[in-house]
Amino acid sequence: MEKHRGNLIRSRIRCNLAGILAIATALAFTACSDENTVFEENVEIADARWAVGDRAVLTVDITDTVSQHNFLINVRNTEDYPYRNLYVFLKTTFPNGKSSRDTIGLYLADASGRWLGSGNGYLSSGRYPSARVMYAYNKRFPVSGTYTFEIEQAMRTDTLTGIRNIGLRIEKKPAHK
């Protein structure tokens, strides 16, 4: 009886340690994935109907002009979205008042119509596919200060249905050790 009780206690300790280790590992991976995030904001598109001229306006204060950064567009769409890609205009206004405008093509589905994003992630409610698409990498901010990013749909339709959220994520490129 005493031997059985000792084995049971050791078994419980191993299970508890394994559980604690699994939780610690999950927290470590979560922390690692976000430690380089400089900025992330997403804007809800009312009724998943994005009209031409409607802009998601995002503002971020930047102090680091030395490090390289990756820029990603976040998109969450419904099954009603009729296309496999999404074109957006991105206007960047720099702290010195200068601005630039880019046209960015984002692939949301493959040729067979299967969504490339997942139902998991920051934007996800589990019901809608979400995608995070990199559009610029290894870029440095030229000056410190407040940057304004404006994202506008650039599809050839007056009102684009099926896009629930649009946003921007800026990640500091990790230093190689």
What does this structure look like?
The protein is α+β, with helices and mostly antiparallel strands and 177 residues long. It folds into two domains: 1-35; 38-172, Jelly Rolls (Sandwich), CATH 2.60.120. 19% of the residues lie in helices and 44% in strands. The protein contains one helix and ten strands, in the order αββββββββββ. The chain has one helix at 2-34, and strands at residues 37-44, 49-51, 55-62, 69-77, 85-93, 99-107, 130-139, 145-153, 159-161, 163-172. The strands form three sheets. Strands 1-10-4-7 form a four-stranded antiparallel sheet, with no helix packed on it. Strands 3-8-5-6 form a four-stranded antiparallel sheet, with no helix packed on it. Strands 2-9 form a two-stranded antiparallel sheet. A hairpin with a 5-residue loop joins strand 5 and strand 6. Residues 17-32 and 120-126 have low confidence and may be disordered.
Numbering strands along the chain, what is their spatial order in the largest sheet? 1-10-4-7
CATH topology of the largest domain: Jelly Rolls
The biggest beta sheet is recorded as: 4 strands, antiparallel
Q: Could you give the distance between the termini?
A: 54 Å
Question: Got a strand count?
Answer: 10
- Computed over alpha carbons, the radius of gyration is 22 Å
In total, how many domains does the architecture comprise? 2
Backbone structural class: alpha+beta
By CATH, the architecture of the largest domain is named Sandwich
Q: What is the average per-residue confidence, as pLDDT, rounded to a whole number? A: 81
- CATH class type of the largest domain: Mainly Beta
Query: What is the helical fraction, as a range of percent?
Result: 10-25%
Spans of at least 5 consecutive residues with low confidence? 17-32, 120-126
Total helical elements: 1
